[in-house]
Specification:
SAM-dependent_MTases_sf, protein methyltransferase activity, Methyltransferase-like protein 22, globular, 6 helices, Methyltransf_16, two-stranded antiparallel ribbon, three-stranded antiparallel sheet
């Protein structure tokens, strides 16, 4: 999406995850994600992370306490045999402003990575997790089984201004306090541009300019981005 695009012009977009589903920008849908537990996982750790829980109806009316605050029930997450099941409430199609209500491929990839870390290591145990661009909250729901505290914040979209603000915030957060690790799932989203009369990924190159691999930094030397890392092979 071009950073100069007018948000006042509503355009419907659909995640590739939802292709083939009936389009309806207003209706809420519940999808049950079944995640197979890989072989070699310690059974005690797995059962400790994902205990069987009573499923909560997604259409249950909202309750409030005496102070008027919402009484929240955790979304269902339970282990069934060799699988972990998660229920996510989302929409199929949305405007640009509402893309955080959809499930995106990058969200699923990052969730798979987080789940692998949780099952095969204690690296995330007791951490304080801050997720920028949480969307439906799938990643946060997973890491919440082992983290001390999880913060979920609003969605991030391909706008140059928002990209600048995001990385300014990240640079500040990463440079303060104790050592931190940033995991970034990036999805290259294509749109048809009337100006270019072509399929483009506007905003992607600007977003990508903030992140460099170690190999790229060796070539660029002094002009390297403050965010240097490595790609994680999830295949």
């Amino acid at each position: 999406m071009d950073g100069g695009e007018d948000f006042g012009e509503e355009k419907d977009v659909t995640s590739e995850v939802h292709l083939g589903c009936p389009s309806n920008s207003s209706a809420l849908h519940v999808t049950y994600f079944t995640i197979p537990i890989p072989t070699g996982v310690d059974s005690c750790r797995c059962s400790g992370l994902f205990k069987r829980r009573e499923q909560v109806p997604m259409d249950k009316p909202l309750d409030v306490d005496d102070d008027g605050d919402l009484v929240l029930t955790r979304r269902s997450s339970y282990q069934d045999g060799g699988n972990v099941k998660l229920a996510i409430q989302h929409i199929i199609t949305s405007s640009i402003r509402g893309v955080g209500l959809q499930v995106w491929k990058a969200e699923l990839v990052l969730s798979d990575f987080v789940l692998h870390k949780m099952l095969f290591s204690s690296e995330f145990d007791g951490i304080i997790s801050l997720e920028l661009g949480a969307g439906t909250g799938l990643v946060g729901m997973l890491v919440g089984h082992v983290a001390k505290t999880v913060f979920l914040t609003a969605d991030v979209i391909y706008s140059d201004d928002l990209t600048d603000a995001l990385f300014d915030l990240l640079e500040t957060l990463m440079s303060l306090g104790s050592e931190k690790v940033l995991y970034l799932a990036l999805e290259k989203r294509y749109n048809f541009s009337l100006g270019d009369l072509d399929i483009v990924a506007n905003g992607y190159s600007h977003f990508r300019s903030y992140v460099r691999s170690e190999e790229e930094c060796k070539e660029e030397l002094e002009s390297c981005s403050p965010f240097v890392g490595r790609c994680i092979d999830l295949s």
